[in-house]
């Protein structure tokens, strides 16, 4: 039985071409800046985003934390969404390690924060207040059904930030999904932000790694913060080789994942007892709800797993599915049919 693992796009395995590139990668000590494969990846990433420089880091979580530590001092405040990965799923690193104060405002269903809410959250110069330094966006927005943020929206936030002397950081873990879904060059979604991260190890299928991109000065500080966090590695070309192929070969195919997610959403919408609005699904992430008491959420997930389908239980009666490389078009029909069987059993 084929296991169809829809819990996350982080379960993707490296492609045969990546395994080959890993085998032949030219290596050196990256802490001395001497790993040629890593240096090449960093140059390719910086060029792809038209930023001055880029830095390879072990994970998206460390990349976001490095950016926060590079932008902010202890006691500074960051404005971010209440549904953001940085607030909900990064172990409070900004406070635990950086003494940074999160100021949470509501994410709308499409992953945006209202401009008026952001502006109202910015503190004045007053000894009683923390200093607002940074606004963080997430594109695509994981918990908001993988919604892509438009370049227009990102630019409006950046304009607002500049008016108040603030910086903007983008958690672009899945920024290429946004670019493919919106049909724009990825630079259009990132040119107005001061720093960004993106992940090589999610939909792009590399085994390890995320990239931080920004100005030369910012990346020099990020390099220091990576060292502070113990993220200085050695022969990183082993996985940077796969990262370069991820950028070269794995971006355009994300459109297949989006089409599969949409088909899945349409299928789920037809199953009595399950609820989803397929119109919301624009990329590779979808959430759906169990809306019957004939079966518990635990029973649903367990019975589905027995049929070889894995999805993530994220709330009392809420589930997440993420499509990715390795999930084929026929797996979508199998998944919908297994869900129907589970609901009819
Ligand atoms: C939006 C978003 N940002 C950041 C991360 C963190 O990436 P990592 O798992 O590589 O730490 C994730 C991981 O799923 C994510 O979904």
Report on the architecture of this protein.
With 345 residues, this protein is of the alpha/beta class. The chain has 14 helices and 13 strands. A seven-stranded mixed sheet has the order 2-8-7-6-5-3-4, sandwiched between helices. Helix 7 links the parallel strand 5 and strand 6. Helix 3 crosses helix 10 and helix 12 packs parallel to helix 14. It is globular and about 60 Å long. The two termini are 20 Å apart. The chain binds pyridoxal-5'-phosphate (PLP). The site of pyridoxal-5'-phosphate has 11 residues, from helix 3. Pyridoxal-5'-phosphate binds next to helix 3.
Reconstruct the topology from this structure.
Elements: E1 4-5, H1 16-24, H2 36-48, E2 53-57, H3 60-71, E3 76-81, H4 85-88, H5 93-98, E4 101-105, H6 115-121, E5 131-138, H7 151-163, E6 167-171, H8 175-182, H9 186-190, E7 195-199, E8 210-214, H10 216-228, H11 237-249, H12 254-269, E9 274-275, E10 285-290, H13 297-306, E11 309-310, E12 312-315, E13 318-322, H14 329-344
Parallel strand pairs: 1-11, 3-4, 3-5, 5-6, 6-7
Antiparallel strand pairs: 2-8, 7-8, 9-10, 10-13, 12-13
Helix pairs in contact: 1-11, 2-11, 3-10, 12-14
Bound molecules: pyridoxal-5'-phosphate (PLP).
The site of pyridoxal-5'-phosphate (PLP) has 11 residues, from helix 3.
């Amino acid at each position: 039985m084929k296991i169809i693992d829809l819990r996350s796009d982080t379960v993707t395995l490296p492609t045969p071409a990546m395994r080959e590139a890993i085998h032949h990668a030219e290596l050196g000590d990256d802490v001395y800046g001497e790993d040629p494969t890593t240096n090449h990846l960093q140059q390719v990433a910086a060029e792809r985003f038209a930023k001055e420089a880029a830095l390879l880091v072990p994970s998206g979580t460390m990349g976001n934390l490095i950016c926060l530590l590079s932008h902010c001092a202890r006691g500074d405040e960051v404005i971010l969404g209440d549904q953001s990965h940085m607030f909900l799923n990064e172990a409070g690193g900004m406070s635990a390690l950086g003494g940074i104060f999160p100021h949470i405002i509501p994410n709308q269903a499409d992953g945006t924060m209202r401009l008026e809410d952001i502006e109202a959250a910015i503190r004045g110069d007053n000894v009683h207040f923390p200093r607002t330094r940074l606004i963080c966006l997430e594109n695509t927005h994981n918990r908001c059904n993988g919604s892509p943020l438009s370049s227009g929206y990102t630019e409006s936030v950046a304009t607002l930030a500049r008016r108040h002397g603030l910086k903007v950081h983008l958690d672009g873990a899945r920024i290429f999904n946004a670019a493919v879904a919106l049909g724009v060059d990825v630079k259009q979604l990132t040119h107005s932000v001061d720093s960004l991260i993106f992940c090589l190890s999610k939909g792009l299928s590399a085994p390890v790694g995320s990239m931080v991109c920004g100005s030369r000065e910012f990346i020099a500080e990020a390099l220091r913060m990576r060292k502070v966090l113990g993220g200085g590695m050695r022969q990183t070309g082993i996985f940077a080789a796969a990262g370069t192929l991820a950028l070269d070969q794995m971006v355009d195919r994300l459109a297949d994942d989006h089409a599969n997610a949409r088909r899945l959403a349409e299928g789920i919408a037809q199953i009595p007892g399950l609820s989803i609005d397929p119109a919301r699904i624009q990329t590779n992430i979808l959430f759906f709800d169990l809306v019957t008491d004939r079966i518990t959420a635990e029973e649903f997930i367990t019975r589905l797993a027995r049929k070889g389908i894995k999805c993530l239980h994220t709330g009392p009666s809420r589930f997440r599915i993420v499509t990715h490389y390795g999930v084929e078009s026929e797996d979508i029909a199998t998944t919908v049919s297994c869900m129907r069987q589970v609901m009819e059993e």
